Amino acid sequence: MRFTPVLNILGILLTLLAATMLLPMIADIVTGSDNWQSFAISALVTGFIGVGLWIANQESTTLDIGLRQAFLLTNGAWLSIGLFGAIPLFLSDLDLSISDAIFESVSGVTTTGSTILPHIELASAGILLWRALLQWLGGIGIVVMAMAVLPMLSVGGMQLFKTESYDSADKVIPRATQLAGGIFIAYTALTAFWAFMLAVAGMPGFDALAHAMTTIATGGYSTRTLSIGAYDSWLIEVIIIGGMIVGSLPFAHYVAMTRGGWQRLIDDPQVRWFLSLMLGLVALVSFNLFQQGYGAADALRMASFNTISIVTGTGYGTANFAVWGGFATTILLIAMFIGGCAGSTTCGVKIFRLQVLASTIKVQISRLLRPHGVALAYYNKRPVNESVMDAVMGFFYLYILCFVVLAAVLGLTGLDFDTALSGAATAISNVGPGLGDMIGPSGHFGDLPVLAKWAMCVGMFLGRLELFTVLVMLHPGFWRR
Questions:
Q1: Residues 388-435: pLDDT tens digits?
Q2: Range of the domain at 443
């Protein structure tokens, strides 16, 4: 395996990350915070290493990479950004340990949104902006990866979308570069539009920008300890609900819309399933809250925002849903695993895999009833071949297995049942808050044992990179000639 192209691209990414650190540095200078020094030092260190890797690995003028190099690049990119993104947090006046700084950074870049900060308002403007930028960069990164890299790697059934991407491994970088331009424009435009709407709705300008970035990225980092509940505005909640839904739909359709391709979004079965599923879950939770004595309007408002936040993996909160009773919390725990559409900023199992699983179950039932008949699974009116069905089934099995193992590890660290179970679910599904007093909507992750924080970091990486992308590197055959 030639490492030169991989290290060259990682050097470019780290150089861009160093340049991004200058934005929160400027924010701290303007607001008079001494944390600008931590960003200056971090930018110098990150930029020095990034430029060094970039220059030292320019022996080849082409960036063609093979299958194994694509796996290595994907893992290396997310790991390096997560680690280097923790440097300004560690050097800041927040007085974070290395474990806490890395947890906060990894939670940001994977768009999980779990925070170790008990009082978010105490952080400087630069720190708050950096947390939002990490999630914003992680969001656009996962969209490009889902559209340009995962179909080629055939991870978890993503080869369904290969015809819309490319056919050969050596086109990963040119294709990713081509897609990134259109996606960046659409992503930036949506972020700016939501920031404008939030500002008009009464949110302070800085908060509007930060929340717009973390809403479109379905990340969930807020500038307030009470999250969106701190604003107590139904208009702000409606705007953010719209942003969470937009971030959960395939971004390829937004790029197509610039060329008049509205019909693709409407006709996409993923979109119809996703919206129908959300409406059903919101109706269930609303009815349950209404039965508990909440007013109809309050029940609908709380259920809509918090359920959609959990399904999309954003993780914002307006209420402590951990005290809503057994039925509502069970529904929300299940909703953590769902996620949005392929090619969006969300994580989780994703809608298209649920569709393929449903079609596979239908085929199995048909074969039981008619053993000699021919039954085919369909997705978007096209037959699904056996390799895709096997990949989806394998992903689903591995997803549950990783969740069980992670929950067991968290339990071994001394966490109670609710905290261990929901902590594993929120980490591997990149949701944000869990259940219980410690990591619930009104709590934070700072009091978790150190081992639990590292275990959750692993879980967040596994969930964000679709499991197989990470685990394939643990196979000895990956490193053999």
A1: 888 888 999 999 999 999 999 999 999 999 999 999 999 999 998 998
A2: 388-479
Residues of the chain with pLDDT under 70: 1, 59-64, 160-178, 260-261, 481
- Locate 89 and state its tokens: 């947090």
pLDDT tens-digit map of 236-246: 999 999 999 99
What value does the CA radius of gyration of the chain take, rounded to a whole number of Å?
22
Using alpha carbons, select from 456, 431, 459 the residue that is nearest to residue 446: 456
Residue 136 near residue 213, CB atoms below 8 Å: yes
User: Is 397 a member of any domain?
Assistant: yes
**Residue 383: φ, ψ to 5°:** -60, 140
Does some domain include residue 455?
yes
Q: Which of 33, 158, 11, 152 is nearest to 81 (CA)?
A: 11
3-state SS, residue 62? coil
**112 neighbors 461 (Cβ within 8 angstroms):** no
> CA-CA distances (angstroms) from residue 419 to 87, 225, 444, 467?
28, 20, 11, 22
443, part of any domain: yes
242 within some domain? no
Contact 216, 137 (CB under 8 A): no
Q: Helices (DSSP H) in 219-345: which residue ranges? A: 234-247, 251-257, 262-267, 269-291, 296-311, 326-335
Distance CA 27, CA 198 (A): 20
The domain total for the chain is 1
Provide the token pair at 119: 């009082």
**What are the helix (H) ranges across 110-221?**
125-144, 150-153, 172-200, 205-216
Q: Which pair of structure tokens corresponds to residue 343? A: 């090619």
User: Would you give the DSSP letter of residue 259?
Assistant: T
Q: Please answer whether residues 211 and 227 qualify as being in contact, where contact means their C-beta atoms are separated by less than 8 angstroms.
A: no
Task: Please indicate, yes or no, whether the overall pTM of this predicted structure exceeds 0.90.
Answer: yes
